[in-house]
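Notebook, p. 212. Picked up where the previous page left off. The plan for this session was modest: take the two constructs that came back from the sequencing core last week, fold each one, and keep the raw output in the notebook itself so nobody has to go hunting through shared drives later. Recording the first one now, exactly as returned: residue sequence, then the structure token string.
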Amino acid sequence: MFKQSFLPQTLLLAGGILLTVAVLVASETGNIRLRESYNDVIHSQRVQTQLAALNGELVNAEAGQRGFLLTGKDSYLDPYYQALPRINGLMTRIRADYASDPEGLKLFGETSKQISSKLNEMALTLLYGKRDLSVALDLVRTDYGKQTMDNARRGLDALQAREAETVAHRLEGAERDVQLSRYGIGLLTAINIVLLIAVGLGHAKRLALSEVARSQAEEEGLRLDRKVRARTRQLSALAGHLQRVTEDEKTRLARELHDELGAILTAIKLDLHWVRRRVQESHPEAADKLTRVMLHVDQGIQIKRRLIEDLRPTVLLNLGLRAALCQLVEDVAGRNHWESEVSIPDDLPRLRDEAAIALYRIAQESFTNASKYSEATHVRLSLGHTETQLTLTIHDDGKGLPPDFDAGSTAGHHGLLGMEQRVAALGGNMEIVSSPNAGVSICVEVPLTASVLAPADEPAEAQPE
């Protein structure tokens, strides 16, 4: 009978292990694809930048050619002669980037022929122009130069569109891989829960089957209890680690957005400004279009800055926790039309980045909950400290938590659970006090230990704006 009762549990455990291994393999495969997608996106962005630069140099060369033909002055040929080596260098680098992409190399080869035709046309007109400007101008009026330039531009635009499509496809694939990783974590948690439930049910069944095995079953229960406590501690440690990893990833993403996307948007804006200056007199309609495009680029820069600020608050890193909390209260109070009150001493001790961002996220989550559910009109934040402890208190005068809310348990309340995990990671404790129509008070107490306080010689971390 006992052997038969153990058989389903053994099969379930084996199935759980197999599922766990399968999920881990799938997760690692997704991580590998994610790294490959990231490298491909960086490569495509670099190629796009080079293609845009090549287009710009062609425009520079053509401008120098036309300036010489119109004026006959050799000084107008400086942009032309400067652009030629740059064009050759860019074409060499682009061809090298397409070395592992036969289709892209073929498309660029066709575009290179059009660029070469344009360069030959400019060289021929300049050769005639140095002898007889009228002959060169007659050659220009044939529109052959315009046709070759249009062909070259179409080829470069097609290549840029192809790279943009590649970036979009890779980002979409990366999003799928991230989503699969999330599902994998959820599945692993479910497997652990199912296994624990199965073990508990088996324990209860063994108690009912034999009074003789009661003592052994009690010992097994104690062992399981110790295992659950250890697992709880491990999960708490894992939750703290995941929060730190999340913050580190946000910081990395903020820096990537600032360095990579910021540089691209700035370069685009500069190029558009240059082009607009060149065409605003001869093609006012095109200049207006370029002005609108520049406005869109400015909007993209603002969105990029807002994303960076959401990922990693620069005020917190540059000016400290006090300034960051003051700005946070001011922002949320302005958005929700609240009256606000802030009490933070000037002599607040300097904290480690991990502790400062944890307290900031706790305050941020508290105000987010208040804005969604409290219907408050006044909020108050205070941050005080003694020699051994830091106390953060957040209060609103809203309708309070539901009557069935258990202040001793945050199960089912993911925002409060995240706050509790952050406090636990700092070695502190959190207390929630609420009553109907009297608002909610959240009090966080954190000991000022070495893991919370910043060393005296630790430099302040700089964050990109």
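Okay, moving on. Second construct, recorded in the same format:
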Amino acid sequence: MDRVRSLIGSHRGRARNHRHPSYSSSGTPSTMNLLGTDGDGDDQSTIFAQETGHVGTFANEGDDSADAATLNTTLSEGSTIGDLQRQGFVNRAPRFTSERSMPFISILLQRGFFAFPSEASYQIFLHNKRKLDKIDPKTGLGLPLFHAISLNLVKSLFSSQNTPVMRIHKFVLIDSQCEKPPLNSELISQINENVSIYKFEFCTILKKMESHNFSSRIEHDFIFHRSNEPDVHVPMINYNQRKNADTTVHGLNLRWYGTTSLASPFGTNSVNLLVLDDTMASYMDQQTIEEFDSYCRSRPTRPLGYLPVWARYTDDKVSVIPKKRTLRVATFYMQETDSFDDGSSSTTSAPHASYSEISSNIIDKVSWDSQVLTCMCMLLHEYESRKEKRHTVWGGSTAYMLNGPAGLLM
């Protein structure tokens, strides 16, 4: 009898192994996190498929172009990219070609805060002791990209009209030999006989609130001003009782995932910009919260942790002790692509000529969509950081230094 039982047990074990084959670590698609998050697969992190031979085997089965829309998704052992597309999980995230790190910096006794186009540019700014007339006009390193100044934030809480909440100014290098400064610009510094630094109002942000039953729909209208061209309006929408904010860039629905609701007294120190699937609900498409919830219930969707991350806002490098009268208040990590390069990033009256001293400076290399997303992130930082300052030990003591009387940048 013992012999019979052992034979039956071994037969059942072989049957189970046949139905559920084991996968070795080398046989599964390898993944990596391009933006440096923990990669644990939750809603605050996104894992991108690494372009290895294993992934290519999954992506190239059948039609080579059929599964391109969902290339930037996490692969599992039970489903391929084609399976995700056939199930309706189509994501049109662009193929990113580079990454950019943009420090958000406050200067003591200077109103507002600044965004630099790169880490290297900020380090040159410190090396030059905040003197803008010492920068190299050929590279533009050491020059801030944006200067954000908040307006009427308290008033906007009680107003339903189009209330201006922030103005963002942009710094540009102008070579007088081949171009004119932007309209209504301010001369900041003259580097040499031909090249000067100007600052002009690049973006005006208006806030509007609409009541819907027990919640309020909040729309921020980002108005971008361009020389000799009509203004560009880009909306961002959220609800006062809900987390997250949605927007649309180049026809793609995006979500700032991790932002706190207007009613929350606490801010956040980490926000991811996700590229939504085409079938996902969005505040940009559904006009009321009831319509949004109904749409979510009627269609199957993937967890947000499986969506591509375009950019990430964090305060992991925030400084407490000022360094050369500056404080790093946050960092904005952003991926960039050449897919949307339509020439719309130009804000001056004419393109740089080939003989210009500033034809390859770093300010002009920031793409249009990167500028739009940076302006959105600067507004979100202002909202979230104001909440955090109420609950930090050093926030109250340095509030005057960060937002004191306006001083000279240099």
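Notes on construct two before I forget. The chain has a mean pLDDT of 76.
Flagging for discussion at group meeting.
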